[in-house]
Each structure stands twice: as C-alpha cells, then as structure tokens.
Design a protein that fits this description.
By secondary structure, the chain is α+β, with helices and mostly antiparallel strands. The chain is built from two helices and six strands; from the N terminus they run βββαβαββ.
Length: about 120
C-alpha cells in the first residue's frame, strides 16, 4: 500500500492517505484569521471539504474530529456552524478542547480522520 500526501511542506502535509484512511492536519483559517469564531469555523470546514475531496472522500465519511478552541466560551458559536455542516446520521466521534493555538489570530483549529 502506498502513502499519498497532499500539500506537503517542510513541517507537515495537509492530508495523508494510507489504505482506506485519510488523516488531515489541523486546519486553521487563512483568509478569516483574526475574524470571529463563526467566520473561522466556516472557512475551516470549507478547507476540510476541499481536502477530503482531493483525497477521494467527503465529510459523510469522517470518523473522528478534534476541535481546538482558544476560548471554550465560544463553544456554542462554533457549534452553530458545525451542526448544519455535518451530515445527519453520519456525525463523527468528536472531542472539543480549549487550547492555546499557534498564533493569537487563530481561535479555532479542526483536525479530522476520514475513511475513503
């Protein structure tokens, strides 16, 4: 079985496929960095959709998600974007934690693992 990597850089790849599994790096907002949790979450979920499509899968096949919030007080705001995005009946196992993220302009980071 071969390993396929997407958008490989000096530190990490944005997605790695092995067999029937796809592992995404933690995604943060690019254009909406510094924006609201709502804006950042929406952009990140769009990035996840695009990466999963390039890897040959989609959000209905997400097995697990880890969501990092800079402030757990924004849990409801993030969920207001997450809940309509996930496929009913195909919601992944999920953990949400408060964490200091890589830079202050990031308020949300999401990492997922999906099946092909």
């Amino acid at each position: 079985m071969s390993i396929e990597r997407l958008d490989t850089g000096p530190r990490m790849s944005q997605a790695v496929s092995f067999g029937n599994m796809v592992f995404l790096a933690g995604q943060v907002a690019e254009t909406k960095a510094g924006g609201s949790v709502t804006e950042q979450t929406a952009e990140i979920l769009g990035q996840i959709d695009a990466l999963l499509a390039r890897a040959g899968t989609d959000k209905s096949r997400i097995l697990s998600a880890t969501i990092y919030l800079a402030d757990m007080g924004t849990f409801g705001e993030m969920n207001a974007v997450w809940e309509p995005w996930v496929v009913p009946g195909h919601t992944p196992a999920r953990a949400t934690v408060e964490a200091k993220l890589a830079a202050p302009q990031y308020t949300v980071e999401i990492q997922v693992v999906a099946a092909k």
